[in-house]
């Protein structure tokens, strides 16, 4: 991989140009006044100094000869200022590279350094409250270490007699200049300028950490920014395991020494990082990318600059301008799912059919395939159901792409891989068109995800490597079994057309084997017995229900009281207390409405709030027999806190009710009252707003409820428990009957089980 630090859109200011060209700064004003074609400045830095785009300036200087009296060193007559600029730029890059840190850290060490850097920066006073600001500041420091390592190396030598604010200003100035040279931004220091090193020692500590920062540290900082800034559904970054899988499928079989990578919807540059890691340092890589906006362009630009690759990132331009250009060796992209297209796209020369306006999924797929050079591959992230969408236009495009041999593989991914959603996705592996289409490989990896401490899933690296090996190999053999973590199959286009062109792995990986007749008959008899057992249990529960003695009227000794007289009510904490920055995988777990399931709490996640913060949230801790009610979102049955969940934290969308005296108000009775249809109707009528249910403790405490004597309360609880048990046993009987039907159907249709009427 080359280490050319001059991307296509490099910026340079007048002072830097004057130094490189060995001229006075006033020379540029003279040239500007005398020559109408002199390049205009493209912006100013934070101090008002003009800066220029490098290449237009280079081309103009190529036509400006140096006077004989102004020649320097070994320059000959006829030398242009453009020649001098090239020579001086090479000398500058050589000097920068020789002063860079020589210690090469491992990926794990770099990621640890990134975490250490963030820990230091969090100690610095900030005047900004931008989400993700600390991570962006860390990423800017990692970038500066690559682009201008002497900025930090000079701090120990410059600190004698130099005030701390001036030292810090020197660093931020160098950052802005590096951003201009790389064409990323002239204002990279904006976040860092809102921060102040507490002391010289803090600054020296950061400088020491910066020396070990590189591409892996940049990836870690992008991940941290994604979590802290809580990027929306069209901006979040792909997790590392998905990025590596996409990278391997796009370049796993690449043998070229020169590669052009393209990402038409770059986010944090994480997928391209994975591609560069897989290609290794001996491949000459050029990166062309497009970002949806300037913020993402800066994020990806900072991150990818740490790799030393030639990178051009355009912002807010139309991706469709590249359609059918065929310039890329490989394409990797995570486009926005199901986005509406601009009406102008209907007039474009789509190679496989015009995509519908209401959904751009098949526009992104066609774009990726259309820019591939012969022999190139693309990995495109898509929604899980894109392969079997019922829209007529999309079905035609899908069929045309399959017939043209453009679809190489489709991989179904597990759910809970991506930070902002639990929904699964698919990876489409595309290739340049072929006159002899090969079978399409379908991989079902929905069971391959391992749950992590954050509650998200991750694809193990060995699984990623195995799938990449299967997708990029020449073999068409079926691999894996239904009980394996993943399985794959190669399917000919004729079989795909029998399924109406659907490209859904599960359709082609259904189990084909039938159990032996004796085993099938044994299974049938077992499920028959399960049905009978479930029916007997339902009868027993029904008998218990029939034995209950229900009274026709309200007894005289029953009272009505507002909840405020019966229990302590507490609404959940403000969402800001539970924000991502306060989270810790080993922290105190938080109960939210999604954990309330049929009157009980089901909580298996390991994500929680940091111990130091949870220690200051005592009133939001729950205790055994507390009753929890949903206060925002969809109304549902309340739940009781069991011993397993005591001392957990109350979620923002819940209200906690704690009876003052359990011998006066039974918690199980309170749960039944709050889940009754009458009380739920009251809650809806007293909720704030008209679209989303919202009810606080201050409103709920006004609810008046019937309070029988404690013996009657417990009798009601027992009766409801019998009814709930009857519902559960009937559901089990229904499930057993459905299971029996499936087994009997398979057995009778296969001839393994006979039947006589």
From TrEMBL:
Residues 555-731 form the Type I restriction modification DNA specificity domain. The keyword Ion transport does not apply. It comes from the Bacteria. Keywords: DNA-binding, Methyltransferase, Restriction system, Transferase. GO terms for molecular function: methyltransferase activity. Residues 235-513 form the DNA methylase adenine-specific domain. One of its GO terms (biological process) is methylation. Gene3D superfamilies: DNA methylase specificity domains, Vaccinia Virus protein VP39. Signal peptide: none annotated. Belongs to the type-I restriction system S methylase family. This is N-6 DNA methylase.
């Amino acid at each position: 991989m080359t280490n050319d630090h001059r991307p296509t859109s490099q910026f340079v200011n007048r002072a830097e140009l004057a130094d490189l060209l060995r001229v006075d700064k006033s020379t540029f004003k003279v040239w500007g006044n005398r020559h109408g074609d002199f390049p205009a400045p493209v912006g100013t830095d934070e101090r008002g100094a003009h800066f220029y785009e490098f290449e237009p300036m280079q081309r103009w200087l190529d036509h400006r000869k140096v006077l004989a009296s102004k020649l320097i060193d070994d320059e000959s007559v006829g030398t242009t200022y453009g020649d001098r600029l090239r020579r001086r730029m090479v000398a500058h890059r050589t000097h920068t590279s020789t002063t860079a840190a020589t210690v090469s850290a491992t990926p794990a060490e770099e990621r640890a350094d990134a975490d250490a850097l963030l820990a230091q920066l969090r100690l610095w006073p900030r005047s900004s409250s931008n989400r993700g600001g600390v991570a962006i500041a860390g990423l800017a420091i990692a970038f500066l270490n690559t682009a201008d390592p002497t900025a930090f190396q000079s701090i120990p030598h410059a600190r004698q007699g130099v005030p701390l604010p001036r030292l810090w200003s020197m660093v931020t100035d160098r950052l802005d200049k590096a951003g201009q040279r790389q064409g990323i931004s002239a204002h990279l220091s904006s976040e860092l300028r809102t921060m102040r090193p507490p002391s010289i020692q803090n600054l020296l500590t950061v400088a020491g950490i910066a020396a070990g920062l590189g591409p892996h540290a940049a990836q870690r900082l992008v991940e941290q920014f994604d979590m802290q800034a809580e990027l929306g559904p069209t901006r979040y970054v792909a997790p590392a395991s998905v990025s590596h899988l996409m990278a391997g499928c796009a370049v796993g079989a690449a043998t070229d020494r020169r590669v052009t990578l393209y990402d038409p919807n770059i986010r944090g540059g994480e997928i391209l990082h994975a591609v560069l890691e897989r290609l290794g340092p001996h491949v000459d890589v050029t990166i062309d990318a497009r970002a949806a906006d300037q913020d993402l362009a800066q994020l990806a630009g900072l991150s990818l600059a740490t790799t030393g690759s030639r990178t051009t990132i355009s912002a807010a331009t139309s991706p469709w301008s590249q359609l059918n250009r065929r310039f890329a060796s490989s394409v990797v992209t995570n486009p926005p799912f199901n986005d509406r297209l601009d009406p102008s796209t209907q007039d474009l020369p789509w190679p496989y059919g015009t995509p519908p306006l209401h959904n751009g999924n098949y526009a992104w797929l066609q774009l990726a395939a259309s820019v591939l050079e012969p022999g190139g591959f693309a990995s495109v992230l898509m929604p899980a159901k894109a392969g079997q969408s019922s829209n007529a236009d999309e079905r035609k495009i899908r069929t045309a792409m399959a017939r043209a041999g453009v679809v190489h593989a489709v991989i179904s991914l597990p759910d809970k891989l991506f930070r902002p959603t639990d929904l699964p996705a698919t990876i489409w592996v595309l290739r340049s068109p072929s006159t002899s289409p090969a079978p399409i490989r379908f991989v079902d990896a929905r069971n391959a995800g391992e749950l992590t401490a954050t509650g998200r899933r991750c694809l193990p690296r060995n699984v990623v490597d195995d799938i990449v090996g299967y997708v990029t190999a020449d073999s068409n053999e079926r691999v894996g079994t239904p009980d394996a973590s993943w399985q794959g199959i190669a399917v000919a286009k004729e079989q795909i057309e029998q399924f109406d062109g659907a490209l859904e792995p599960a359709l082609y990986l259904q189990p084909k084997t039938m159990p032996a007749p004796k085993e099938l008959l044994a299974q049938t008899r077992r499920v028959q017995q399960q049905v009978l057992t479930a029916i007997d249990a339902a009868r027993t529960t029904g008998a218990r229900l029939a034995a209950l003695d229900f009274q026709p009227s309200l007894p005289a000794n029953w009272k009505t009281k507002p909840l405020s007289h019966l229990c302590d009510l507490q609404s959940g904490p403000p969402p800001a207390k539970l924000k991502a920055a306060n989270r810790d995988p080993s922290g105190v777990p938080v109960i939210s409405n999604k954990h309330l399931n049929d009157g009980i709490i089901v909580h298996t996640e390991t994500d929680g709030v940091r111990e130091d913060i949870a220690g200051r949230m005592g009133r939001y801790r729950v205790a055994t027999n507390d009753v929890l009610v949903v206060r925002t979102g969809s109304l549902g049955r309340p739940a009781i806190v069991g011993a397993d969940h005591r001392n957990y934290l109350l979620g923002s969308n819940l209200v906690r009710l704690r009876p003052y005296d359990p011998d006066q108000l039974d918690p199980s009775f309170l749960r039944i009252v709050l889940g009754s249809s009458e009380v739920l109707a009251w809650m809806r009528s007293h909720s704030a707003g008209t679209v989303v249910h919202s009810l606080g403790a201050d409103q709920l405490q006004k609810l008046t409820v019937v309070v029988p004597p404690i013996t009657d309360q417990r009798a009601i609880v027992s009766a409801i428990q019998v009814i709930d048990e009857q519902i559960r046993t009937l559901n089990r009987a229904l499930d057993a009957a459905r299971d029996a039907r499936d087994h009997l159907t398979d057995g009778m249709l296969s001839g393994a089980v006979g039947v006589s009427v």
